[in-house]
Amino acid sequence: MLRVDRLSKSFATPDGMTQAVKGIGFEVAEGEFYTLVGPSGCGKTTTLRCIAGLERPSGGAITIADVTVDEPDAGVHVPSHLRDIGMVFQSYAIWPHLNVFENVAYPLRVTKPAPVKSEIEQRVMDSLQLVGMGDLARRSATKLSGGQQQRVALARALVRKPKLLLLDEPLSNLDAKLREQMRVELEEMVARVGLTTIYVTHDQAEALSMSDRVAVMSEGLIAQEGSPRDVYARPSTQFVASFLGVANVLTGIVGGPDTVVLDDGAGRLSVPLSNGFETGARIRVVVRPEDIEIRADGADGADNCIAGRLERVVFEGAQSECFIRAKDYRIRVRVHQATDAREGDDIWLRILPDRCVVFHQDGN
Ligand SMILES: Nc1ncnc2c1ncn2[C@@H]1O[C@H](COP(=O)(O)OP(=O)(O)OP(=O)(O)O)[C@@H](O)[C@H]1O
Ligand SMILES: [Mg+2]
To answer: pLDDT, tens digit, for every residue of 26-79?
Structure first.
């Protein structure tokens, strides 16, 4: 459905050229929900604007539904309005002088030739129904909540039944609670229409919860691509691990086959190591807060157990975040049940070995 091939984009700035996108490639299948996620400035919006035809790539090629819409080397550039796409951006720009119906009807009215009146009526109402705004068609656009405006923007993007839906941080103007609710709704809506969607966000929770596949971007490149579960559980770099969630990082050396000796005598881990890790190599072990258990009784010296002191328990309702001091480490552990342990207690941490991800110390 969409193919992005060695896409690059440079901008001229007063300090010289900056390369916002450095030759990235990905493919998105029909009906797939694909997310570009990464920190501010990593090139997500630039990539999306190239796909939309709002920015001309410096190199590479973009193909939508088997039609090459950009290939600078071959002099190909199909203008934005001739690409079959719908878009919603962060500032969703609902027109205040138009009511809800007219906001959604706008893209149809400027289509040449414009559909007949009854068809416009039908398609606008279908779109509004889809986003749960059918009852508010005659409401003035200025008298809508943030979530309702967001839905109108989405209805407007869907009204022409585009092949491809491009969404750039569409939820970032909403408050936290509404954002979480709209996340689910939005994903269900596009799934119902079976629309191929490219979603851009810097919010890892959005990316992980909504997408079929995600591409984690860093400095103009894709650091890792895969299903949300895969990239979360098997990050290929420490950057990906830390960006997608809290990551405890322990340091040590390889003590032998599948054995890690942590620095400062903090303990030993028995973790699966691939062939690339030779005895004596300095490594970092990344483990998520939900992959560590807190135990009261001493499994003294046992592998995968580390002695520590519970410094702080932060109650968060359904779960608690515990901060444990173990030698030089401050380790975060997430527990779901109420824990009996109290701040100041000496406790043991058991690290779930098959959840550990090991990197070379000098890697990234
Ligand atoms: N028109 C432009 N002129 C010059 N530099 C630009 C332009 N647009 C983007 N850039 C630069 O390109 C890089 C990537 O920008 P981009 O907007 O794609 O980032 P982003 O990943 O969308 O970030 P954010 O999460 O903050 O929206 C940044 O360094 C940015 O400053
Ligand atoms: Mg952006």
So the answer is: 999 999 999 999 999 999 999 999 999 999 999 999 999 999 999 999 999 999
- Mutate which of 45, 47, 168 to test ligand 1's pocket (most atoms within 8 Å of Cβ)? 45
pTM higher than 0.70: yes
> What residue owns the CA closest to ligand 1's atom 4?
11
Answer for the pair 332, 313: CB distance below 8 angstroms, yes or no. Answer: no
Query: Range(s) for CATH 3.40.50.300 in the chain?
Result: 2-242
Closest CA to 139 of 173, 102, 189: 102
Sheet with 259-262, side-by-side order of all strands: 268-270, 259-262, 248-256, 282-287, 357-360
Under DSSP, the state recorded for 115 is P
Ligand nearest to the CA of 217: 1
Opening angle at CA 358, ends 357 and 361, nearest 5: 140
Return the amino acid letter for 128. Answer: L
Q: Which CATH number fits domain 246-360: 2.60.120.20, 3.30.70.270, 2.40.50.140, 3.30.450.40?
A: 2.40.50.140
Segment (H or E) for 328: none
What residue owns the CA closest to ligand 1's atom 18?
43
Domain span(s) for CATH 2.40.50.140 in the chain:
246-360
The answer to whether domain 2-242 has CATH 3.40.50.300 is yes
Q: 336-341 long-range CB contacts below 8 Å, 24 or more apart? A: 339/294, 339/313, 340/296, 341/294, 341/296, 341/310, 341/313
Asked whether 211 and 34 are in contact (CB, 8 A), the reply is yes
Q: Is 107 helix (H, G, I), strand (E, B) or coil?
A: helix
Instruction: For 234-269, write each residue's pLDDT tens digit.
Output: 999 999 999 999 999 999 999 999 999 999 888 899
